[in-house]
Amino acid sequence: MTGAEDPPIEVAVVTGATGGMGRVIAATLAGRGMHVVTVARDPSRADELRARIALGPGSLEVIRADLATRAGVTAAAAAIAGRHEAVKILVNNAGAHYPEHRTSSDGLEMHVAVDYLAAYGLTVLLDRQLRRGRARVVNVASDTIRDTRRVKLFGAPRPATIDPADLADLTRVNAVDGFVPFEAYARAKLLTVTAGYDLARTFTAHGVTVNAVHPGIVATDIVDDLVPAAMRPISGLIRRFMLTPEQGAAAALRLAIDPALEGVTGRYYVRDIETATPSVSYDHNVQQRLRSAADRFLGIADPVDGPGSG
Ligand SMILES: NC(=O)c1ccc[n+]([C@@H]2O[C@H](COP(=O)([O-])OP(=O)(O)OC[C@H]3O[C@@H](n4cnc5c(N)ncnc54)[C@H](OP(=O)(O)O)[C@@H]3O)[C@@H](O)[C@H]2O)c1
After folding, report:
1. Residue closest by Cα to atom 25 of ligand 1
2. Can you tell me which atom of ligand 1 is nearest the CA of 67?
């Protein structure tokens, strides 16, 4: 029971908390007494997390929604906004790698839907709650944006690319022609980083920070999709050389809660090292085109106000 004199319980939204790193991020924030909201396609997959959180000072709320669909993203945001005045932390952690070309029910390529639009959509649709909470937004990206080679033994790094012409319509991004799954995943993460730089500028006047992070190579379910087929028979062995979900989660948690990072915004980190991203991600024209395309797709008429607006 909360007494009248107690400070309000802080809310953290963590997507993908039914999986490897998200579960650790959510449990850690709840362990600090926060009320954690997650979005899950199958809420029963959050049972283990719920049991863990029930033992500590925090609490968990699970909203059923599929972040691969526009309706899922908007419904999840509406549910959160309807129940919570302010959000202190938003960790856009849900992500997936798809081994073949697939489209969402809205016609977006699935990496674009899950690894980009879900993160962008929740951030802009929770605009007011984030401002009230003077929130930290953390986008869990991937360093594949700086090098899309799966085996990095030979040749030079091959950064992910964005063709600005594709941004006329998000359904053009990651088209079936010339589709390469790992590149498509990396491009979607690059869209998230690119949009994050734009949002960071927009939100600065409101005390909201937006940063992105590569957590390292972490032994979670997603790596089963990411490991090249030829190496799958030894994926158990490979996992042993990877970071644990706890070690991976530490990178996003640092951005979410480390007091030393108060006010730091518009950065990309490889674990805890600030790192530059492909030049296209800093291009204001590209950022603007991306924002327009995404806002149109989401049906947002008046998204986050421009920089400096009240
Ligand atoms: N592991 C690595 O080495 C690595 C490296 C770089 C970046 N990352 C990024 O780290 C983040 C966390 O991934 P992880 O490694 O912890 O993988 P994971 O264990 O596979 O977790 C992924 C989470 O995303 C959720 N998710 C996927 N599609 C969804 C959808 N349509 N709607 C709602 N939730 C959805 C999953 O929910 P379900 O339970 O419903 O499947 C799961 O909770 C991802 O963004 C990933 O791209 C991972």
Report:
1. 16
2. 32
**DSSP β-bridge partners for residue 103:** 109
- Residue type present at position 226: L
| Alpha carbon nearest to ligand 1 atom 23, residue | 16
Residues 238-271: pLDDT tens digits?
888 899 999 999 999 999 999 999 999 999 999 9
Average pLDDT over residues 23-48: 97
> What CATH number should be reported for the domain holding residue 200?
3.40.50.720
User: Does 275 map to a domain?
Assistant: yes
Tokens 């839907």 map to which residue?
113
Note whether residue 135 is domain-resident. Answer: yes
**Can you tell me the distance from the alpha carbon of 39 to that of 46, in angstroms, rounded to the nearest whole number?**
10
Rounded distance between C-alpha atoms, residue 284 and residue 280, angstroms:
9
On whether residue 1 sits in a domain, the answer given is: no
